[in-house]
TrEMBL record:
Name of this chain's protein: DNA mismatch repair protein MutL
Originating species: Mucilaginibacter myungsuensis
Domain DNA mismatch repair protein S5: 209-327
Gene: mutL
Gene Ontology biological-process annotations: mismatch repair
GO molecular function, one term: mismatched DNA binding
GO cellular component: mismatch repair complex
HAMAP family reported for this sequence: DNA_mis_repair
Location of the MutL C-terminal dimerisation domain: 437-579
PANTHER family (alphabetical): DNA MISMATCH REPAIR PROTEIN MLH, PMS, MUTL (PTHR10073), DNA MISMATCH REPAIR PROTEIN MLH1 (PTHR10073:SF12)
Pfam families, alphabetized: DNA_mis_repair (PF01119), HATPase_c_3 (PF13589), MutL_C (PF08676)
Amino acid sequence: MSDIIQLLPDAVANQIAAGEVVQRPASAVKELVENAIDAGADKIQLILKDAGKALIQVIDNGSGMSVTDARMCFERHATSKIRKAEDIFSIRTMGFRGEAMASIAAIAQVELKTRRHDDELGTILLIEGSEVMKQEPCQCSAGTSISVKNLFYNTPARRNFLKSNPVETRHIIDEFQRVALAHPNIFFTMHHDGQEVFHLPAATLKQRIVHLLGTNYNQRLVPVEEDTSIIKLHGYVGKPEFARRTRGEQFFFVNNRFIKDAYLNHAVSAAFEELLPDDCYPLYVLFIDIDPSRIDVNVHPTKTEIKYQDDKAIYAIIRSAVKRALGKYNITPSLDFEIDNNIQHMITPMAVEDIVAPTIAFNPEFNPFEKNNKGTITPAPSYSGGSGSYQRNAIPSNWDTLYQISKREEVVQHEMEVDTETITIEDKPVHKTSERQLFQIHNKFILSQIKSGFMLIDQQAAHERVLYERYLVQLDNHSGVSQQSLFPQTVTLHGSDFELLKELLPDIRALGFDIREFGPNTVVVDGVPADLSNTSEHALLEHLLEGFKNNMAILKLDKRDNLARALARNAATKSGTVLSLEEMNVLIDQLFACQMPNLALNGKPVISTFTMNELLERFDK
């Protein structure tokens, strides 16, 4: 019997490894940008086409590579980061395994141009499916430019599993944001299909957060600082009132490497205990500096998980540091943590002797009323000009008849109203009171008497059900009614939310939104659904996208159903709202006109019925 175990060819082994390293275009972007950072670049450009499926290009001004290094970087397990096994436990670079470039080259067409700063000529290298097609000297800028074209071109089954362009773009933006946050001292740009998405100059951490997430985040951040013998912690957390219902704005970095750690996330959440509802999550961007010998970064293929020697101590440090930072904020909520030195002198407290009391100028001879010879009071004289001369205003002799015309019109109008009301009553009787007996309990439930007893209706769940079914019809028929804004509002979103909005734009317009793109990450809202016209456009869009992402992460709904749910929950009358008798009647009529009036959007009942027999049993009758 012949032997059956054989070594895999390098090309096949690289394709297998690529399935682990390069799951989607965002994975390739992460690896290439991190390589540029490890090369010492302070300026990195990311260029995308077709959400990275057609082109991913990363240009940096780092150290560049020699001719030999340019060829060796595409070999499996070829790395400049480690030389022996002990080096794994002192890693401070982003990558170290040496599998990324080999994996990318196995499933794409790669063009590499690189030159060291001291060399006159650089090297160009073309690789397709792990096969070197061309390598020769070339003229190029110092640093490295790598282009990955037609990702998964030789594995069509894998390419077919990629999502739509907006979805893949959002994943790329997520990876780009993580790297950009970890290195605020590096200048980053990102272009997608010829449009600049991000332009991030070198800045402080707070400025980088504001550049990435939006200018409205400038007043939302609270600084966190802690220096111990175990870790050094710094960064920012969001104020409790700006917490969201999704986890999209939570970033942990260990030695500038983004990680996902539910244990440390719980430490931050514990610091916000009793400050946030259970379904809200705070913003945080926190950096942990720790001795590499105290952690193990080689426990996950994507290096997003880490093991710690002193995990309980780290938990306690993070929790106490965040809690103390929030306590300082509560004492001085208007504190600005980064005051510009150029305007510091403008807010210096004034000395007591520098305070000048306000003065009032008046005419001591002025008398608003003056008696004439007959003893009656006449208006004060009106001055003409500044010469001091004046003349009295003449009083009309028929001033007492001034309001006769107005009174006559009121009488005529009153007679017309009486006649109109009489005609209306004679033509058709009007019932202004309803036969339905309704009561509101604690501004949360509606009690309605029925023949067999009474029923309790959850007013918020009922309104959500009514709006949900209404929005489904509008999405199917594109029949949403828009209320145009007198002054169109400009709304700026951060990158991933903007891409999500572009994906949902046709359906959002079907619901009654009138929205158009207006520059990078910015839209103009010309109109909103008519029943939501009294809501802030920015808050409405933010809550709509927030609800959509939350439903997508938890319920796995289709886009149409998800959007209707998100808008219904955002627009529904909340528990605690006082309703008039007419509003309760309308809500009940609309609820029982729904296809599923008894079921709330969360699957719980909307109506609970209590019979007379149940009441009699409670009173032992």
